[in-house]
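Now for a specimen:

…
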Amino acid sequence: MTATEELRRGLDERGVKWTYGYGTVSYKSDGHWCNAWEYGNGMMCVSMGFFTPEQAIAATLGRGTCHNVWDVELTGRLRFQCSECGCVSLEITPRFCPCCGRKFVDPTTNDVDAEVTDG
């Protein structure tokens, strides 16, 4: 099965309508048009419509979350170190990791996935 055939099958399984022409599969995702074509070795090249930076990160890296693993008690400094990619930031409570784009959550609250707000 070619990569194009696998993509069309996957879209069918999710009930996503698509069109095929000139070697390109076109479909809509979250209201944005996507065009995909076979690149080689089972890989596909996908171009997407206009996205906000947050949507672009979610589309390419997923909507994962992270939390701060910097030990303030040991260092005496307030910094952010991503629990997922290890990136260190001087910003105390970023909304998103500046390296991997995951959403920063505060695991010390009762709701483990509670978002940190700008206050």
User: Anything to note?
Assistant: The two ends are 51 Å apart (CA to CA). The chain is about 20% helix and 30% strand. The chain has two domains: 3-50, 63-119. The longest strand covers residues 32-40.
